[in-house]
Amino acid sequence: MTLPAAPKSSTNLVQIAAFSVIVASVVLGLKFLAYRLTGSIALYSDALESIINVVAAGAALLALWVSQRPADHNHPYGHTKAEYLSAVVEGVLIVLAALSILRVAIPDALNPRPVEASFEGLGVNLAASVINALWAAYILRVGRAARSPALLADGKHVMSDVVTSVGVLVGVLLAKFTGWSVLDPLLAIMVALNILWSGWGLLSESVGGLMDKGVDAATEARIRTAMSEHGQGALEMHDLRTRHSGKVTFVEFHLVVPGEMSVSAAHIICDRLEDAIQTELEGARVTIHVEPQEKAKHHGVLVL
User: Fold this and answer.
1) Is the model more confident about 6 or about 148?
2) Which residue ranges run through the membrane (predicted)?
3) How high is the pLDDT of residue 116?
4) Is residue 5 part of a domain?
5) Is the pTM of this model over 0.70?
6) Residues 121 and 115: beta-carbon distance below 8 Å
7) Is residue 5 within 8 Å of 19, Cβ to Cβ?
8) How far apart are CA 175 and CA 124, in angstroms?
9) Is there a domain that residue 107 lies in?
10) What is the domain range of residue 166?
């Protein structure tokens, strides 16, 4: 399996998302073939989740295509939040997939039937899992590097699929060799519960982005350090606020300077702070409100 080159632009991220749709479709075909060869309800539940993978990959592709569009009159801050919408859609689809699996697996657990799992079918499912694992590792690496919520959501979902697929394979083999047919639907139920947990995590994270959740503590500490180290000439900085919008981080704060300082001098300090923060967070958009010294609050990031 040849992976695309590492992305150098938003356009390449869209190409990677498009390739993800192809990979998800291939894996879906392999998993349904494995189900047809084995008749395993657990493998059927695994194949059902792959349908969601295809839809989710398509949603990520659409979101990345929209998010790279430049700011316009109606969207002065750009379109980057489209990635969070994609992640929310994916989370909802994951939950629906889990409920579909439970609807099939619970009756089978109450009335288990013998598992006629062929090694050919299990081998096909294993091949699909290997493809998924390689692709998930790649898009997670790309998603972290590009700070793309859509790709990260897709990668986490695919990796979750890999984990459940491995568990299903082990369980089906146990059911085949021990004769405990109930293991097959029980494993399907466990897959559904794991999918529900994955969907809840995705929904929580993406809703946080839509609700303008601030950066994590470690990132905020980096911002504060950059502010403190490059704010020479100012008296104080306070009311720091941050939020994510896709791969863009917005940073806002108040800068207190001596009342007699000229606008040009204050502007030089602002430029220096913007450069420092953007060095720490590539693509950050910084807004600084300059205030005279009587507006000092004596808390926040103090310039010594």
Assistant:
1) 148
2) 12-35, 47-66, 87-106, 126-146, 158-180, 186-203
3) 61
4) no
5) no
6) no
7) no
8) 18
9) yes
10) 10-210
